[in-house]
Each structure stands twice: as structure tokens, then as C-alpha cells.
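[SOLVED] Predicted holo structure with S-adenosylmethionine

Edit: marking solved, answer below. Original request kept for reference. I posted the sequence and ligand SMILES and asked for the 3D complex as C-alpha cells.
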Amino acid sequence: MATPSPEQVIDNQRQDWNRVAGGWEKWDRFFDEQMAFLNHRLVGDARLRTGLRVLDLGSGTGYPAILAAQTVGVDGSVVGIDLAEHMLTVAESKAKRLGLHNVTFKVGDVTILPFESASFDAVTSRFCLMFLPDIPKAAAEIVRILKPGSWVAAAVWSAPEKNPSISLSMTAVKQVIDLPPADPMAPGIFRLAQPGDFAGMLERAGLTDITDQEFLGEWSYGSTNEYYTSLMEIAAPIQNLMATLSETQRQEVKHLITNAASQFQRGIHITFPIAVRIVAGRRPG
Ligand SMILES: C[S@@+](CC[C@H](N)C(=O)[O-])C[C@H]1O[C@@H](n2cnc3c(N)ncnc32)[C@H](O)[C@@H]1O
């Protein structure tokens, strides 16, 4: 299969995440409750405090943009940027429901930030940067729009074997059909899993005081069925894999996934370990 051009990658990303925006809205409360600790970690690592102007990259349905807005308060402001307008519609309605007037969402590409140089006091990003066709370009853009002395903090997925809630679906698909070996450099869920990879890009882009830590946690589902359904409704890359299968193969994969997930039963929940790489750095000055 031909390698998609950067423009095709961006276009596919926009279509993929717009397609699953309804699923993200449906499961919003669940993921909000299960993943809030990551937002708090990013808000801390980006050193957010009252009055700051923050840019959140790939906000999707508002994470961590909404917590960032609550943290910087009425004297501060947050802009969330994302390719997928339907994801942002969910974020906007949530911000409205929470009575937040200091957060706005803008459709756009993280690799060409439509903002003036040195115009933000901090940058945050959760689970977006590994999907970009040109991550060093985004790193350069982050450095450009940060004011001197200010911080970026980003979360990306760590290694597949440490994130079974994501990787066991891929393993199941591979048991049913032959998949070509994944290109580790291609945009995708685990593209930035290697220690030092994104940190090195930030360093080469000119940031200092860089930290790169694997942050371990857990999340719990009520049942294997809840896990399977949510995965299929929100994980665009996994939906894409499933779309290549026949109905019989899909049923086989479902059986393999729920069976593998049942091994994570602890008490009344299915509890998965997760491993997230948290990378932060500061623009000198
Ligand atoms: C897994 S979702 C994460 C959303 C949110 N940050 C969260 O953690 O819940 C990935 C998001 O990155 C966005 N995205 C992917 N590539 C992008 C790009 N080049 N520019 C802006 N957003 C992008 C997608 O549209 C999608 O909303």
C-alpha cells in the first residue's frame, strides 16, 4: 500500500475523528471520570495558574482544555484547536453547560498554528501528537507560539504491551487476518511510545528543562461488553481496522477481544493498566 501524503494523513484524521464524535459524546462521562488524573497531571506539568493564556492541541471533546480553563480562571483564557469540528462541537456544549466563558475552540491543524509568535503562556496536549504526519514541525510551532520562559506538557501513549486496553484489539485482529507489519514511524497510536522520541524533538526545536516520564495508571470498565462497545465507538484507528473485516471475522475478533479482556477482571470491574508518556519542556528566556 502506498504511503499516504501528509495532506492525506490530515484529511483521514479529520474524517476519522469526526466520524466517532458521537461515540465520544456518548462515553464522555465515563472517560472524564476515568481519565481526569491525566488532565490534572498535564495542568501541573504545564504550570497553569490564574490569568494565563493557554493553547490546547488536539482538544477533541475538551481534554484537557476544560480543566485548563477552570484552572486559569476568568482572568485567563484557553484556546483548544482540533481538526475535527464535530469533536469540538461536543467540547463547546460542555464548556457552555459548565458556564465557562474563557475557553474557545478553533478548527485547525496543529502543524500550522494560526497564532502569532510568543502569544501563549502555556501549551497542553493529550493523545493528539502521535497522529501528526510531521511531528517535528508541530514541535517547532509549539516553540514559536510559546512566550519565553513558558511551558508545554503533552501526553502520548507509551508502549503497546503496557496498554492492553488498546493493543489487545490489534492482537485479536492479527489473529484473524494477515496484517502487514506496522511501520513504527507512521502516524498512529503508538508512534511516540519510545522514551526520548518526542522529548528529543522538543529539544531539537529549542526547548530546555525537558522531562519525559512514563506515568502509570489504571482504568476500569463495568464489563467486557462495556469495554468492547466503548472501544468500537470511540477508537477511530481500531474502527478502521475492523472495517477491513467480514461480519464473520468481526464476530471472531469480538470474541477474542472480550475473552482477552476478561483476564483483567478484578472484583466486579475489568481493570486495565495504562502507561502514558508525559513530556514537558520550557522555552528558554
Ligand atoms: C484521541 S483524540 C484526543 C482528544 C482529546 N485531547 C482527549 O484526550 O480526549 C485525538 C484528537 O487529535 C485530533 N488531531 C489529530 N491530528 C490533528 C492535527 N494535525 N491537528 C489538530 N488536531 C488533530 C483529532 O481530530 C482528535 O480529536
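OP edit: The first strand starts at residue 53 and ends at 57. Thanks to everyone who chimed in.
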